[in-house]
Amino acid sequence: MKHAANKQAGWLLVLWLLSPLVPACDGLTGADLWIREGPPGATVLAGFGRLINRSRETLQVSEIRSTDFKLVMLHETVLQAGQAHMVARDRLLLSPGEVRALSPGGLHLMLMQPTVSLRRGQSAVVTFTCGNTQNSMVFSVRSSDQ
After folding, report:
1. Which pLDDT belongs to residue 8?
2. Is the CATH code 2.60.40.1890 the one for domain 23-142?
3. What is the pTM of this model?
4. Which of 92, 126, 90, 86 is nearest to 106 (CA)?
5. Core-most of 2, 44, 136, 142, by most CB within 10 Å?
């Protein structure tokens, strides 16, 4: 029994030593998080608000999911030769203290193939993954004029 406890303590020490190398979403928070209400039957919605890194470490968001959508992607609207195009972003880096806006015409969430019908006043939970940790946030559904 003592051998098993020592072995477990050894693994915990290794994980503790490596933990600074694995970015965590523990310091990631959101403000004014919302989803633009779509017309009935819409297959793509968009998510907006502000993401805030309240930690002392740079955070790298590597995955975004929601049980309310089959696919969630991070997109950014960019101008190329005077034309607006959406470009998928596979990760999001947030420096310590950084606030990143998710806004129409800029960086935003593309919420595709809803698994439920979301109407104004309802909400969806979106989960952000950084390394081996996750942080879930609530996005409320509202019309774009609110």
Report:
1. 52
2. yes
3. 0.79
4. 86
5. 142
Give, rounded to a whole angstrom, the gap between the first and last alpha carbons of the chain.
Answer: 61
Q: How far is CA 110 from CA 27, 95, 140, in A?
A: 23, 23, 15
Instruction: Give dist(CA 60, CA 44) in Å, integer.
Output: 25
* Residue 13: partners with Cβ closer than 8 Å, 6 or more residues away: none
Domain boundary assignment for the chain? 23-142
Reported as a single tens digit per residue, the pLDDT across 74-133 is 999 888 888 988 899 999 999 999 999 999 999 999 999 999 999 999 999 999 999 888
Three-state DSSP class for residue 86:
strand
